[in-house]
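so my prof wants the structure for this chain in the tokens format not the other one, which i didnt know existed until like an hour ago. anyway here's the sequence
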Amino acid sequence: MNISAAPASTMAMATAAQQLQTTMQAQVSMLQELAESQQEVARMLAEGGLGQTIDVRA
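here's what i got, hopefully its the right format
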């Protein structure tokens, strides 16, 4: 690798790292929304008394 290619390579790696961070932040946000949604469904089921008497001895 010659010296002139180093800055371009570093810039490309920085750009890729920024894109990865942005993607990871989006994924974490989606997972948080999914968890909140599941908690809401669980709350609604509990309020309705559903799932309270599940027989796990099948």
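also thought this was worth mentioning. The longest helix spans residues 5-47.
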